[in-house]
Amino acid sequence: MDTPLSTVAVVGLGTMGTGIAEVLARAGREVIGIDISEEAARLAVSSLEASTARAVERGRITDEERRDALARFRTFSDLQAASDADLVIEVVHESYEAKQQVIHALDAIVRPTTVLATGTNALSVTRLAADSAHPERVLGMHFFNPAPAMKLVEIVSSVLTAPQAVDAVTALARELGKEPVAVGDRPGFVADGLLFGYLNQAASMYEAKYASREDIDAAMRLGCGLPMGPLALLDLIGIDTARTVLDAMYAESHDRLHAPAPILKQLSEAGLSGRKSGRGFYTYEAPGSQTVARDALTPLESATATPGRPVRSVGVAGSGTMASGIAEVFAKAGYDVVLAARSQEKADRAKARIAKSLARSVDKGRMTSEAREETLGRVTPAGSLDAFSDVDLAVEAVAEDLAVKQELFATLDKVCKPGAVLATTTSSLPVVACARATSRPQDVIGMHFFNPAPAMKLVEVVRTVLTSDAVHSTVREVCVKIRKHPVDCGDRAGFIVNALLFPYLNNAVKMVEQHYATLDDIDAAMKLGGGYPMGPFELLDVVGLDVSLAIQKVLHGEFRDPGLAPAPLLEHLVAAGCLGRKTGRGFREYAGR
């Protein structure tokens, strides 16, 4: 098995198989494309011709390189064509029966030294290998869609796989310009193992009518920096494929987080599998189109809402980074802002933080010195909440402690004028508990900004069962004026973003606990395979392990799902004082705090 894998057969010329064939042909490999459908083979050739033509237009390859790549790709309808291959990659239908038929047939066709790779993302590689005449040469080679663009390749070995086979395909992946990550055999491997649990929870959230599909997707794009929202991603992947992956994961884990949401079954059995069918969570202009079409669930832009209350001045309570960031956002939008802290000194320091932030904006050419002075002049620091007597909107950004917030809201109830909107920026506490500390719970709402507030575009607007329509409309109007994107959600733990983000982070910690993969491999897998701006352990260390643990405990306490119980490793690190970057050590060590 010390072959250089110069001739590779790809069995199954659907989207993934065609993409893999293109990667191989452009990297100088002789590629044998095999599909029982002559139409699929024809489309694969057309796809390679079109993609390489675009590459020439963009200056990425020359005409000669394009001709050579096209000459290296040949298509056949019979598996016998794979007889001289050094490596066969199968990407046929995601079922044991289909894949086992291919592997059995190849056993009688290819040389004993030929490596057989399955492209499965859900099925057991061990089970597929065990049915082969040469199980030691069978492994998983999981590319991500679209294969030409995505850098990650998960190399999946079973207890039967020969190390030489793993070494050979790992070297090939690197020569193809990919980043290979070695993983063991479990459903979903690393990237899909974490990704599909998150997607499943998003589907359940939508099914429960907790938030609209547009708001769920916008929340995760803007709140986490993801390239796509979860429901749009499910439509891209294929709802039937997602259901298959989740069924396989649940069969092994028995974790309720992996039990496919009923809506996935309903949509897939109705043939509404996403983009490829023209309809899934969204409706598309045509099957295969990426253009979303308006349907009965699309929000009406001209929908009339209850008129909001006028807001001219805003009070921000707190002296930390979040409070000063929110005050800066409102001042930039032209509002007069009262920034109140527990002392005048703390309020002055908070305003000084805003001054530094605005100075950086001037240095970067984002605003003029005149605009900086005007913005800063709109911020009035105060050492007492009494200064909120005339504000139209009061936003608290104090410690994430319910008793502290309730005491503050009781004070706001006394000092704020009738009709003022009272908002909390809590990320994990019940908004209604803050509302009940006042005599006017109908005026209380959640405005969950994300850190850093000046940069992050998302605000989760959290109304309780007591919040009035006018207050809800007021806050949504204000969000638009301060150039933030509001998403509506109900008053339950985690709202949208944290309810989907932190279980994903917790599951990543469990993978490390189980010695399934390393921190570096998991981080690389999610950045390269999932398009995440940061790996889960990079993010945990930035957010703070203590903050992450607190939110995970709140989620577990509210939903009572055993799968949401905080990972013991996370609890141990927090108990040891390893809280992430702020302490110099979390999942990784840092040179300084």
Automatic annotation (TrEMBL):
Domain (3-hydroxyacyl-CoA dehydrogenase C-terminal) ranges: 188-284, 494-590
Keywords: Oxidoreductase
Xref: InterPro entries: 3-OHacyl-CoA_DH_NAD-bd, 3HC_DH_C, 6-PGluconate_DH-like_C_sf, 6PGD_dom2, NAD(P)-bd_dom_sf
Limits of the 3-hydroxyacyl-CoA dehydrogenase NAD binding domain: 7-185, 314-491
Keyword Transport among record annotations: no
Pathway membership, UniProt: Lipid metabolism; butanoate metabolism
Keyword Chloroplast: no
Record Pfam families: 3HCDH (PF00725), 3HCDH_N (PF02737)
Classification via NCBIfam families: PRK07819.1
Family of the protein in this entry: Belongs to the 3-hydroxyacyl-CoA dehydrogenase family.
Name listed for the protein in its UniProt record: Oxidoreductase
